[in-house]
Amino acid sequence: MSESKPVRKAAARRKGDAAAFSSARSADSSARELPCNMDAEEGVLASIMEDPSNEVLNACVASGFTEDYFTRPLHKKMYSACVALSNAGKPSELVILAEYLDARGALDKGDAVEMARIAGRIETYAYYRHWMEIVREKYFLRAIIKTCSEVIEGAYSNIGDVNGYIGKVEERILNIGRDRVGDSVKKADQQVDSAVKIINEMIMSKGSLMGVPTGFPDLDSLMRGLHENEMIVIAGRPGTGKTSIALNIVESAIFSPKRYPTLVFSLEMLADQLYMRMIASRGRVNQHELARGFLKPEKMRDINDTAKELKGAPLWIDDTAGLSILEMRAKARRLNQKLEGDGQKLGLIVVDYLQLAHGSDPSLPREQEVAEISRGMKAMAKELRVPVLVLAQLNRDSEKETRNPRASDLRESGSIEQDADAILLLSRQRKSATDSDDTVSSALWPIRVELAKQRNGPTGVVSLMFNRNFTRYESYTSKDDVDI
């Protein structure tokens, strides 16, 4: 049977659309057509039009479908119109769809015939999920080609920091993969069991730790360890021993029975300085005597034994100055992938300290840049399912007003307070408000540690003792006349 004139025109139109699409290729694609499957696209659209229950369209929306998943201009218009009709509570039936597009001047000559042909392509929409998957795959292949083409062009024209550029490239590729995961919304029966499992573990633990130990019993009693997916902020004024308490927590993590692999981003100090402090702290070596070169032979043995311990510990330190949040996430991601290849995973990430990190755009106002960094820290915790311990500076308000610090004293951005799952505030503790630094022992400083925020638990205050000779925090046991 010979084809009718409208059908011949429609076929010619389809060929023209395919040719136009094929010409929209990247500069380095060697004249190859971009991935697409017109039959699958038409199958999805026909399923939407033939489905009175909107099951197909709802599945597309839940899977993240946009008009960009389709290649022909007509297909894009049809899908967008179907979504708009659904939002208005109307069906996507052929006549209603054509009227909707025509009323908005979006129905070009011949489109009505093409839409009728597409709607008549299938007898059942039972296979719509297979067609959806094909359309999705072709879209992500096009996204990869587009991203890689832009990466190549960017590499030719890049005049900035190459490490930062590589971090951005990794994030863009990762975002494509994350988008491809699809629907993350799950029904209760798929998730309640895991919640009950966690509750049972808490009951069976009888109050024992559920996360990475801090090494301080009073603090662990409040927090029950540092938990995965959480961003924990330790904040204080300069000189309160933020780096020291972080290194003590690192020590507790890497030498605990579970030996949590730990990554430290040291933006302020060099790696050898941190290792020197850890050796002196764990070996209980007086740093003043060490600086003068006067050590007893037994202390030299302690240093060598501690150094040997550290060599075998699952600890990595990156002391690159001025890292961006994108670079940190990329480096943490790579280390975690390497550990997963060995059947392990990262157990703790430490950043010392937040205000020395950089955002992706240095031209932004500083508060916006810090807000981006803070969000990036939280995103890193969720992405890698690891606790991220972040050190931060407090402003001078608490010193000016002679009061204990508050979470609102965090420097440069209120978003740190918002993003953090837990906030620990460190402050010097004196016998009275009139005491000067000289009236407090130069070696032992009582430190007030306030758990000012804990999203999933109680808040409270604990006392610790900072031993400056060993640059080491210890549990406060004297309980004498220090008023907290």
Number of distinct helices: 18
Distance between the terminal alpha carbons, to the nearest Å? 95 Å
Any low-confidence stretches, pLDDT <50, length ≥5?
Answer: 22-29, 480-484
Number of strands: 9
Shape summary: elongated
Q: Topology as H/E string?
A: HHHHHHHHHHEHEHHHEHEHEHHEEEE
Mean pLDDT: 81
Rg over alpha carbons = 30 Å
Question: Helical content, roughly?
Answer: 40-55%
Strand percentage: 5-15%
Strand order of the biggest β-sheet: 3-2-4-5-1-6-7-8-9
Biggest sheet, open or closed, and with what strands and sense? 9 strands, mixed
Structural class: alpha/beta
How would you summarize what this structure contains?
Helices cover 49% and strands 12% of the residues.
Q: What would you say this structure looks like, in words?
A:
By secondary structure, this protein is of the alpha/beta class. The chain is built from 18 helices and 9 strands. It has helices at residues 5-23, 38-50, 55-62, 73-87, 94-103, 111-119, 128-157, 162-180, 188-205, 217-223, 242-254, 271-282, 287-292, 297-311, 325-341, 366-384, 397-400, 415-419, and strands at residues 231-236, 262-266, 315-318, 348-352, 388-393, 422-428, 444-454, 460-467, 472-475. The protein has a 9-stranded mixed sheet. Helix 2 (38-50) crosses helix 7 (128-157). The protein is elongated and about 95 Å long. Residues 22-29 and 480-484 have low confidence and may be disordered.
